[in-house]
Specification:
It is a single chain. The protein contains eleven helices and eleven strands. Helix 5 packs across helix 7 and helix 7 runs parallel beside helix 8. Strand 4 and strand 5 form a beta hairpin. The structure holds adenosine-5'-triphosphate (ATP) and magnesium ion.
Amino acid sequence: MAALLEIDGLKTYIKQRHGQVQAVDGVSLFIEEGETLGVVGESGCGKTMTGMSVMQLLPPGGYIAGGSIKLDGKELVGLSDNEMRKVRGNEVAVIFQDPMTSLNPTMNIGAQISEGVRIHRQVSRKEALDRAAEVLNLVGMPNPRERLKDFPHQLSGGLRQRVMIAMALSCEPKLLIADEPTTALDVTIQLQILELLYSLKQRLRMAVMLITHDMGVIAGRADRVNVMYAGKIVEQAPTEELFESMRHPYTAALLASIPRLSQNSSAALYSIPGLPPDLSHPPAWCRFQPRCQFATARCREEEPLLTGATPEHQYACFNPVGKGSLRPTAPLTH
Ligand SMILES: Nc1ncnc2c1ncn2[C@@H]1O[C@H](COP(=O)(O)OP(=O)(O)OP(=O)(O)O)[C@@H](O)[C@H]1O
Ligand SMILES: [Mg+2]
């Protein structure tokens, strides 16, 4: 059976005054019904552009240059704005890092949530408001009925994020794209929101694309993980397997930089030395090579493709790290 979401060879570019950024460069991934897929990588590696390609909400100059995105078997690439509007918020919904930029400060939250409901469902104003109260209750908003009249600025950051989640869930999407849903929140609230998302996903049997730069967020929450680097997927595996036996040196470095929740946010984290390549002129060989401690001559000549002993666990590296350790296995070239 086909997966709920199937992305194949997706290329999403952003035209600029001089040239263009190849933000997503040949990404293929899938999400099964009810599954949570973690999409992890450093800032600028193309996570958001991958998610926004599904929604077709790209920044100015952004366009899908190639590939296919199928939701429930239906091709989304090439759909008109009108057709996409029926998909967005209905079959697939998104929550962003910062609720203040997504919520309308001049509308009360009841009006905002019910507006979304009325776009997709033939219901009266009253029924839409009832639905708003129902989803606010679902996301753990205290006294949801009374809260319908509140404006976003009257709520704390955690409650605003709950409102965002309520809006996203109001039409029961099959797929929720959660793009850094907790990054802007403080640590205890982060955990509460992640728990809430997890329990809602179980209850509503919804699939989730959980986008984060933090491996700690996906641990125990995602079924599978796709690791992105410089516009490409460099490793994909079931979550537990990735944590136990990652093969790509970039994944290993990301895992080494998991922030501890107990850690003071000002404490120094391990970070990967160097910077990702400029995506307006990406190299034709391994994109991680300049930052990789295991790089050999071949890594500067050829681009490694995704490969692996099983279809479930694939990595794009000529010198993968050994099982559970950082020792490189024997180089493939002599
Ligand atoms: N509005 C924009 N205009 C031009 N380039 C952009 C724009 N938004 C993103 N990009 C570029 O596209 C590439 C991918 O960006 P994207 O936002 O998908 O990264 P990300 O993985 O989500 O990073 P972050 O963790 O910081 O959110 C980056 O090189 C970025 O500079
Ligand atoms: Mg992003």
